[in-house]
Design brief:
The complex is a heterodimer of chains A (about 110) and B (about 120).
Chain A (H helix, E strand, L loop, with lengths): L4 E3 L2 E5 L4 E6 L6 E7 L6 E6 L5 E4 L2 E5 L5 E6 L8 E8 L7 E3 L3 E6 L1
Parallel strand pairs in A: 2-11
Antiparallel strand pairs in A: 1-3, 3-8, 4-5, 4-9, 6-7, 7-8, 9-10, 9-11
Chain B lengths: L4 E3 L2 E4 L5 E6 L6 E7 L6 E7 L2 E4 L8 E4 L6 E5 L8 E10 L4 E5 L3 E5 L1
Classes of the chains: A mainly beta (about 110), B mainly beta (about 120).
Chain lengths: ~110, ~120
Amino acid sequence: TQLLEQSPQFLSIQEGENLTVYCNSSSVFSSLQWYRQEPGEGPVLLVTVVTGGEVKKLKRLTFQFGDARKDSSLHITAAQPGDTGLYLCAGAVGGSQGNLIFGKGTKLSVKP
Amino acid sequence: EAGVAQSPRYKIIEKRQSVAFWCNPISGHATLYWYQQILGQGPKLLIQFQNNGVVDDSQLPKDRFSAERLKGVDSTLKIQPAKLEDSAVYLCASSLYRGFSYEQYFGPGTRLTVT
């Protein structure tokens, strides 16, 4: 069974702080996606990483895919209250036509 | 471009009753997914359709859950009879292949409470 473990489970920080959340697995994924989910809404795709060692930046968010394509991290610089939400990583199972395995998520709260 | 539409947004039923959820995917998206998200968990895939055919339903509790996607567009997910442990948010998503991965777009979900 392929599993994605996310850490920390909960994170509460002050506006302006930096943070990193992690997504780890013993399995190799063909690609990995990060989503953000706000209360009462569905997850929204932030980024897809495909190549081992790949780094992608989206404004203050930096995503990295591990060299072995088993893990990923999300770093947020100068967090803002608008970053509050549940951050989910999801690994694509190769050849599955889009079947994703989701982690349990990291619940981030950024206080003003 | 309109997003994925789901209805109803909320539903409260008693155990052993039946319930149905509806999803309208983004126009042109051939792949449609139903997920179950229990509080504090990530979404768990229940069933995946490619057009009107089932690609993966290995995690669908087939004794009580059923889903269909007639004409390859809208889809319905049914639970009959419902159990207390079915209380969750049911998410529908549709996807577009980008050449290296499938990007999934989610609807707002239906929050089901079984009492």
